[in-house]
Here is the input.
Amino acid sequence: MSDTSVIPGALAVRNLFEDLLGREVSVNPGNPLGAADLPTAVIAIYTDTSQQLYAVLGMELSLAANAGAALGLLPAGAAEDSIEEKKLFPNLAENVFELCNVLSSVFSNVEGAPRVKLYQVIYPGMDLPNDARAHLLALGKRLDLTVEVARYGKGTLSLSIA
Here is the structure.
């Protein structure tokens, strides 16, 4: 484990979302995802170059669906249908995978930070590894935000650094 693990700031997260989605995004301090949120959340697991768990990112289904629809230039209704059915449709999942992959850059933009890469994305209904679950629900180095994508909707983003 590197001593240089740093939690990215809310501004870095907002800027990355805005740049990627091409629309206004607002972020505010939020409540962390809870155990009850995890079965329908999208979870991204990040590792360092030695394949050690570095960070776990959780996105509430509403945020994942809205960001996925915005990234794919789909109507907001596509996200609403996905949220209503409590699953992430394949076209949205593909876009969310790309978002999670690009989000790995927020870890590496700190001088001296290790190179971090996306290891795995777990979608609603898939089994979440116990170590990832534990890190996401733990107190400690974390960032919890409410992220709102203009003209789409909002949801919770929780990021825990191992």
About this structure: The longest helix spans residues 90-103.
